[in-house]
Amino acid sequence: MYRIYRELELNLRIKPKKRLVRERPDPLGTATDINQVWSIDFMHDQLTDGRGIRLLNVVDDFNREGLGIEVDFSLPAERVTRTLDQIIEWRGKPACIRCDNVLNASA
To answer: Which is it for strands 96-98 and 37-46: parallel, antiparallel or unpaired?
Structure first.
């Protein structure tokens, strides 16, 4: 088909791109008590010498209290779980943990 269109110097039909139908996410519930919902987030920054650093922030959603900040050049999964375990020993276990790409992950 393409060869025939090219020989006859016809314009090729351009197919419109199909749009993905996205479901609207459920609205986030608000925390009504301490240790009900924690939010974790990774951030990054750069030092003056060009090396990048990563930060892990853990916040209680009810009172916006910063429960922990972990800073290093690299934060492997083992380090993240160890940090969360330390906060759980100190504050108790939350009902759920929120992250950027996951709506609710059971703790």
So the answer is: parallel
